Amino acid sequence: MQLLLVRHALPLRTAAGEGADPQLSEAGWQQARRLPDALARFPITRLVSSPQRRAFQTAEPVADALGMGVDIDDRLAEYDRGLSHYVPIEQVRTEHPEEWARMAAGHLPGTVDEDAFRGRVSAALADIVGAAEHDDTVAVFSHGGVINVVLHELLGTARLLSFPIDYVSVTRLLYARSGQGTVAAVNSTEHVWDLLPRNRR
């Protein structure tokens, strides 16, 4: 089976006390609206999302285009879901350089239970793959940390956060009948390259 891991689009920032579950920004909605065409070549049979709004909202244009519902799996939530606020990663880099340096070195924030995070993400993926038929294609809408965990478990990378995962990027995995997974593509962004924060002028 084929698994398409889609990172959420650009969300809004939230202030302390507002929680870490923001909605998409207008730029994020613009990014998300690129996904139906980008994914049209794949015979998608199921849509699954993190419970966090930025992921579920990113899935909505695809769900509408396909006339499909979106299954929510709480285990696909990002490691930040319990925090008091949300800051987009581009702003973390400039406003919190020490935290950025830790993540750039491949580590989750020190307050995160890494083993628990890895465990729930791995369990979610195992269930999604296990429930699929051999010819199925499942699109999973989640987060950069979640996608990095999946890649880490498959590839045995030295660092947990080894890959830059852009907004609405697509990472494609293939699973054999035995359950063995291989990585076909990481962080594909051709469909949204001009809308990524680093490329906007």
Supply the key terms:
single chain, 201 residues, alpha/beta, Rossmann fold, six-stranded mixed sheet, 7 helices, 6 strands, 35% helix, globular
The shape, in one word, is: globular
Tally of DSSP β-strands? 6
Instruction: Provide the domain count.
Output: 1
Main beta sheet? 6 strands, mixed
Assigned CATH architecture: 3-Layer(aba) Sandwich
Q: For the record, give the distance between the C-alpha atoms at the N and C termini, rounded to a whole number.
A: 39 Å
Strand content: 15-25%
Provide the spatial order of strands within the biggest beta sheet. Answer: 3-2-4-1-5-6
Structural class: alpha/beta
> Percentage of helical residues?
25-40%
What is the alpha-carbon Rg in Å? 16 Å
Succession of helices and strands: EHHEHEHHHEHEE
In CATH terms, the superfamily is Phosphoglycerate mutase-like
Mean of pLDDT: 92
Q: Low-confidence stretches at least 5 residues in length (pLDDT < 50)?
A: none
Number of helices: 7
Name of the level-1 CATH class = Alpha Beta
CATH names the topology as Rossmann fold
